[in-house]
Design a protein that fits this description.
single chain; mainly beta; 1 helix; globular
Amino acid sequence: MKLVIALAAAAGLFAPIACADDVTDADAAPFIGAWMIAFPDDPGVIVNRPDATCENPAVIERVDEHRIHVRTPGGDMGEWDVKAFDGRNPWWRDDGMTLVTEWRNDDAFLLAGKDFTGVRTDWKNAKQWTRCAATGSDR
């Protein structure tokens, strides 16, 4: 079994890396709004203290059709280009940093950074961003 895992890991290292031609611009509109941030409510999650709540949310604003500005209670995350690749939405910042989103439904997505290799997306530590309900003042 260990050999199978090792071979699978090695195969992943030599898998083709996304070519810039495969990545396209994506619409920023689905990300615009106020968001709660916490670990997903998945089996095995025991303590789930949110990083942002709807009372003190993360806010994503549109810069243009394909660019967003993200601010969380923990600080300003800056501006990101929203892309589309392989059914997901990578976010690319001008300094080369990347994050990857995967929609769970119309009002929730996972946001993941890189794992210890700096190459693979770290879905185990991804946080779920859940849209806060609009209030009368938000409309």
